[in-house]
TrEMBL record:
Residues 22-200 form the Outer membrane protein beta-barrel domain. It comes from the Bacteria. InterPro entries: Beta-barrel_OMP_2 (IPR025665). This is Outer membrane protein beta-barrel domain-containing protein. Pfam families: OMP_b-brl_2 (PF13568).
Length: 229
């Protein structure tokens, strides 16, 4: 792992831990749990480059959040999720539009997020999430049409029959959104971006790919209900 990746993860872990440790604001003890669901727009950063377009996948699971304090107008807390998430890529070439190859990769993911919000206790709040994320590869599906065997081309195909070699995925994620807090529960709409620091193929000097990492735009909605206010 590169030293800049280690530093980045350490900083994000520090940011995530701060809300639980701070003792200078108005104390809160709000625990909420619920569920989330949404979609991923996926691509993979390959080196050498593989031309592709965004692949849509699903994302959903369980959410738990703890609000520890309100410091001036900023509400501070931490959030953790346990999600099923689909990543992967959809190859595309303008020169060979008849070629089709899609890889969907299924993961169990755990984002660890600092939750910083601004707004009223009842009503609309604006919030920001940021923190590290880890994932565990569980399965994949591959779709490849017969045109690959019938067309003469010079495209990169090393990735087609290559199995995932590094099943542990890690990176950083962050985003922002709006939360509507009501007596019936809390409703969140959010956009995030996930940037993987790990490669799912081996990337030593003897391996073909120097880089094979996920990049994902996430749009999701979450429902939370308070267990403790």
């Amino acid at each position: 792992m590169k030293i800049k990746n280690i530093i980045g993860i350490a900083l994000l872990l520090t940011v995530w831990a701060l809300p639980g440790r701070a003792q200078v604001g108005e104390q809160r003890h709000n625990l909420a749990v619920g569920f989330n669901g949404g979609i991923n727009l996926n691509s993979v950063s390959f080196s050498p480059t593989v031309r592709q377009k965004n692949l849509m996948g699903i994302n959903g699971g369980l959410t738990a959040r703890y609000i520890s304090e309100k410091y001036f107008s900023m509400i501070c807390g931490a959030q953790i999720e346990l999600n099923f998430s689909q990543h992967g890529w959809d190859e595309y070439s303008e020169d060979y539009p008849e070629l089709q190859y899609t890889r969907k990769m299924n993961y169990v993911e755990i984002p660890l997020l600092a939750h910083l919000a601004f707004g009223k206790d009842r009503g609309v709040q604006f919030f920001v999430h940021a923190g590290p994320q880890i994932g565990f590869f569980i399965s994949d599906t591959r779709t490849k049409n017969d045109a690959w065997d019938k067309t003469s081309h010079n495209l990169v195909t090393e990735q087609h029959d290559k199995n995932v070699e590094n099943k542990f995925d890690y990176g950083i994620t962050g985003g922002a959104g709006l939360e509507l807090r009501t007596k019936a529960g809390n409703f969140l709409v959010e956009g995030r971006y996930y940037y993987a620091l790990s490669d799912f193929y081996k990337s030593t000097k003897k391996d073909y790919f120097d880089r094979s990492a996920h990049g994902t735009i996430v749009a999701k909605i979450t429902y939370l209900f308070d267990l403790k206010k």
